[in-house]
């Protein structure tokens, strides 16, 4: 069986035969977590559709240096572009939903404040969360072999996010009271703005405004799903119908 090559994200452009000194975070990851040694091979990705085959050429005093050996174009992005508006939930649930959404091919994630989101709106708190979510996304890309890093936006109020318009996209909101499912959406969809609420759902006023912004209410079967499950199920269903699953 072919040995899996570890992957590391570095926000930098590379040239063949270039040597790179890894930062402390990536050095710790390859030495302490992956237990790699000098002469071991790893794969670098840098938010392009290229992967860079590399070799560790030295590890001294917890400073790792790598050599870029070769590059290969590798595009595994879905033809379906998904912008996920995800109402902010408790830490573990939000982290899980973001991680799995990335694995399933989401392109942009915007954390959303709604009436039932029940989180602090302080700039310091949200900035801290946003940095953490960015790392969750990078880690998910390392695992699932995506080379393009999905974008995580600053948190927005639900009204502001919903009123944004892109003529190419179809707008969908998950609503367990709807009579329509994803299979009833017309064909040839290649861009989706998907809104997923918290476990408390949306208030009546919020849902009225969401509909006014031309979102199509969609239900995911007869069962009520947790917010993180709903996001995963909706993205999976969209990728099966319009994407690459």
From TrEMBL:
GO terms for molecular function: rRNA (uridine-N3-)-methyltransferase activity. SUPFAM superfamilies: alpha/beta knot, PUA domain-like. CDD domains: RsmE-like. Its EC number is 2.1.1.193. Keywords: Cytoplasm, Methyltransferase, rRNA processing, S-adenosyl-L-methionine, Transferase. Residues 23-68 form the Ribosomal RNA small subunit methyltransferase E PUA-like domain. It catalyses: uridine(1498) in 16S rRNA + S-adenosyl-L-methionine = N(3)-methyluridine(1498) in 16S rRNA + S-adenosyl-L-homocysteine + H(+). GO terms for cellular component: cytoplasm. Belongs to the RNA methyltransferase RsmE family. Specifically methylates the N3 position of the uracil ring of uridine 1498 (m3U1498) in 16S rRNA. Acts on the fully assembled 30S ribosomal subunit. This is Ribosomal RNA small subunit methyltransferase E. It comes from Buchnera aphidicola.
């Amino acid at each position: 069986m072919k040995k899996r090559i570890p992957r590391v994200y570095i926000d930098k452009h590379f040239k063949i035969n270039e040597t790179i000194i890894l930062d402390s975070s990536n050095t710790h990851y390859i030495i302490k977590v992956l237990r790699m040694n000098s002469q071991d091979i790893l794969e670098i990705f840098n938010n392009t559709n290229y992967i860079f085959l590399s070799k560790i050429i030295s590890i001294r005093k917890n400073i790792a240096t790598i050599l870029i050996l070769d590059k290969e174009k590798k595009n595994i992005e879905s033809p379906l572009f998904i912008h996920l508006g995800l109402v902010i939930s408790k830490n573990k649930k939000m982290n899980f939903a973001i991680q799995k959404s990335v694995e399933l091919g989401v392109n942009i994630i915007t954390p959303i404040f709604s009436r039932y989101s029940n989180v602090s709106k302080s700039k310091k708190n949200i900035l801290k969360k946003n940095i953490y979510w960015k790392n969750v996304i990078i880690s998910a890309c390392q695992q699932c072999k995506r080379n393009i890093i999905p974008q995580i936006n600053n948190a927005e109020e639900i009204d502001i996010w919903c009123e944004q318009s892109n003529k190419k996209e179809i707008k969908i909101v998950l609503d367990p009271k709807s009579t329509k499912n994803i299979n009833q959406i017309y064909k040839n969809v290649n861009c989706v703005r998907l809104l997923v609420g918290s476990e408390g759902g949306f208030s009546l006023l919020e849902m009225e405004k969401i509909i006014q912004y031309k979102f199509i209410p969609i239900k995911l079967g007869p069962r009520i799903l947790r917010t993180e499950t709903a996001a995963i199920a909706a993205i999976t269903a969209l990728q099966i119908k319009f994407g690459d699953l």
